[in-house]
């Protein structure tokens, strides 16, 4: 079992200084709009991933008008007590400690304390651009495969170098082709490895999502997901070779794993164009639940689940089914926020599980 | 800061341009110089001026030098057919301190990184390629930082000299002296295992 026992927030978002103790496995958090429900969930997420779930800079995570912030948590993992501390100094320099030992590389932390967040804006995953879906897949793969994140960081660095070279070449009307070839070689080395990882992963993940969809929606809507990559038909080296003229003209890299996507279809049509609100939400939950199940299977213990404002998303019946699955059938820690204290309490009583309510 | 003399003020301003020196430290240094004999301060100034004016960069390896050719390059006892490629002069000093290397150096003056606007043309790469061809170099040793840009630079130079019969090596990457295995990161540990050494040569290297 893995879970948070105690958390202290200092100058984090709307909290000046506050501490919370979590005594039960199921934690309900209620409070009015703007009282800091999401921020509390984000603090837990932050300690698992060394960054906020929302795309914010560290300066934006600091309480308005203050400088520097600190998050500290006591937790339990495999029956052993642990401690996580994150400090953002006045100069926005970040330090991260696990059990009082400082990390040299934050990427070493990813995957040790797995967590899954479901937040209101997540429907972007379904309706938004491919970047959101890649980010979700990358977050998940970084936790599963050691080394994935390192390769991805290296890939992105080389990609930046390559694009800078192309831009400089366009300005000076002269390209050092041998340097471009070296960067291409370095890019291919990482790109091909990342592609293999994603391909192996997609083969298991996609059937799982489709299966989860049916179980949440209660019927089969013929939802089809496919992993789309330019690398299906050609190696990274071939792609770069084919696109070289165009890349030079546009001064950026047009092909590679940074263009990968997960295509979503329903009855052969593009999902986001024809799906109803309910179907979108069902698919979102199916994706998130599959992420949760994959992590659990790979890690051998249940990740922390952070459900932000989910009551607004599903009807009562589906909500009960979902909560039953994650709170009763699974043994992990679950945080749920809602504006209505009574609604939370009723849901927990219906489930007949021990719970704790935190009122903000 | 209110200073009673404009001479003092301009001296303080000059000192505070140095890296790591703020206004207060600059004032302390200047006041210290004010306590010295005029002759001594004169000498201090002269040495600095002379250092900047007379110092040269070795035409062969771009190390700092008092003459056209630096003392390392001019030393006939050193192996002239071995070149160690480094990023900057500080690396030369670090490697010389080990007293383990008796070849010559070549200072690149940086590392390839288009993102920072540094391409091969801004570095002493052309002269290195020329030098290897001219001097019939037997071995080129890369002593660059172990990161992506370091690798880019190594591959780039390697490609430029592949028509020449010169052996290309790079410094070993592995467990640090006094380091403990359990604290080494996996990448380093894995690499040390892949490039393990016969015990004989390990011991003879002290």
UniProtKB/TrEMBL annotation, chain A:
Q: Residues in domain RecF/RecN/SMC N-terminal?
A: 5-347
The identity of this protein, by name, is DNA replication and repair protein RecF
Indicate the family of this protein.
Answer: Belongs to the RecF family.
Coiled coil regions, renumbered to chain: none
Task: Tell me which Pfam families the record gives.
Answer: SMC_N
* Gene this protein is translated from: recF
Record's PANTHER family?
DNA REPLICATION AND REPAIR PROTEIN RECF
Q: Where in the cell is it found?
A: Cytoplasm
* One GO MF term attached to the UniProt entry: single-stranded DNA binding
Q: Which UniProt keywords apply?
A: ATP-binding, Cytoplasm, DNA damage, DNA repair, DNA replication, DNA-binding, Nucleotide-binding, SOS response
HAMAP family in alphabetical order: RecF
Q: Which residues bind ATP?
A: 31-38
One GO BP on record is:
SOS response
The protein's matches in NCBIfam families, at most eight in alphabetical order, are given as:
recf
Q: What is its main location?
A: cytoplasm
Domain of life where this protein originates:
Bacteria
GO cellular component terms given for this protein: cytoplasm
From TrEMBL, chain B:
Q: Which domain of life is it from?
A: Bacteria
CDD domains in the cross-refs:
TOPRIM_recR (cd01025)
One Gene Ontology molecular-function label: zinc ion binding
For this protein, the record's SMART domains field holds: TOPRIM
PROSITE patterns reported for this sequence: RECR, TOPRIM
Write the record's keywords in alphabetical order, separated by commas.
Answer: DNA damage, DNA recombination, DNA repair, Metal-binding, Zinc, Zinc-finger
- Zinc fingers (C4-type), as residue ranges, are 58-73
The yes or no answer to whether the keyword Cytoplasm is present is no
UniProt cross-references to InterPro entries, sorted A to Z? DNA_Rcmb_RecR (IPR000093), Rcmb_RecR (IPR023627), Rcmb_RecR_Znf (IPR015967), TOPRIM_dom (IPR006171), TOPRIM_RecR (IPR034137)
- Task of the protein: May play a role in DNA repair. It seems to be involved in an RecBC-independent recombinational process of DNA repair. It may act with RecF and RecO.
Which NCBIfam families does the protein's record reference? Answer: recR (TIGR00615)
Q: What is this protein called?
A: Recombination protein RecR
């Amino acid at each position: 079992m893995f879970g948070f026992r105690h958390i202290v927030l200092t100058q984090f978002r709307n909290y000046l200084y506050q501490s919370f103790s979590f005594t039960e496995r199921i934690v309900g958090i209620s409070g009015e709009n703007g009282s800091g429900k999401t921020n509390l969930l984000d603090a837990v997420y932050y300690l698992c991933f060394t960054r906020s779930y929302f795309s914010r800079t560290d300066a934006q995570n600091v309480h308005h008008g203050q400088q520097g912030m600190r998050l500290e948590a006591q937790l339990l993992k495999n029956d052993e007590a642990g401690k996580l501390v994150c400090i953002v100094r006045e100069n926005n320099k970040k330090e991260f400690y696990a059990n009082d030992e400082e990390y040299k590389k934050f990427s070493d932390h990813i995957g040790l304390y797995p967590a899954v967040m479901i937040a209101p804006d997540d429907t972007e995953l379904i309706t938004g651009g491919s970047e959101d879906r890649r980010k979700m897949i990358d977050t998940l793969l970084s936790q599963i495969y050691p080394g994935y994140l390192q390769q991805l960081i290296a890939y992105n660095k080389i990609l930046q170098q390559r694009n800078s070279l192309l831009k400089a070449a366009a300005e000076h009307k002269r390209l050092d082709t041998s340097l471009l070839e070296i960067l291409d070689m370095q890019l291919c080395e990482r790109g091909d490895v990342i592609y293999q990882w994603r391909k192996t992963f997609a083969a298991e993940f996609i059937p799982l999502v489709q299966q989860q969809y049916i179980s949440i929606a209660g019927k089969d809507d013929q939802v089809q997901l496919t992993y789309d990559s330019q690398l299906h038909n050609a190696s990274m080296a071939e792609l770069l070779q084919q696109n070289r003229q165009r890349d030079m003209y546009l001064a950026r890299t047009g092909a590679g794993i940074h263009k990968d996507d997960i295509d979503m279809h329903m009855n052969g049509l593009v999902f986001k164009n024809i799906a109803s609100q309910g179907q979108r939400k069902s698919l979102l939950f199916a994706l998130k639940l599959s992420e949760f199940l994959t992590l659990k299977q790979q890690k051998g213990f249940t990740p922390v689940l952070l459900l932000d404002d989910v009551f607004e998303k599903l009807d009562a019946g589906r909500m009960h089914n979902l909560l039953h699955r994650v709170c009763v059938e699974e043994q992990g820690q679950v945080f749920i926020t809602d504006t209505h204290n009574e609604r939370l309490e009723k849901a927990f009583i219906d489930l007949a599980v021990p719970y704790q309510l935190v009122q903000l | 800061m209110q200073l009673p003399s404009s001479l003092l003020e301009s001296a303080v301003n000059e000192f505070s341009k140095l890296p790591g020196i703020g206004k207060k430290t600059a004032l302390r240094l200047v006041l210290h110089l004010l306590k010295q004999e005029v002759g001594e301060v004169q000498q201090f100034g002269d040495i600095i001026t002379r250092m900047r004016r007379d110092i040269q960069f070795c035409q062969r390896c771009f190390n700092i030098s008092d003459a056209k050719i630096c003392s390392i390059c001019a030393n006939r006892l050193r192996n002239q057919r071995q070149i160690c490629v480094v990023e900057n002069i500080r690396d030369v000093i670090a490697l010389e301190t080990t007293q383990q290397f008796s070849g010559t150096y070549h200072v690149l003056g940086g590392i390839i990184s288009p993102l920072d606007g540094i391409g091969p043309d801004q570095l002493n790469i052309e002269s290195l390629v020329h030098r290897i061809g001219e001097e019939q170099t037997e071995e080129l040793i890369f002593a660059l930082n172990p990161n992506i840009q370091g690798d880019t630079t190594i591959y780039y130079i390697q490609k430029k000299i592949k028509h020449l019969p010169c052996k290309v090596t790079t410094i070993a990457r592995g467990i640090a002296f006094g380091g403990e295995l359990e604290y080494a990161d996996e990448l380093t540990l894995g690499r040390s295992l892949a490039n393990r050494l016969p015990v004989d040569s390990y011991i003879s290297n002290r």
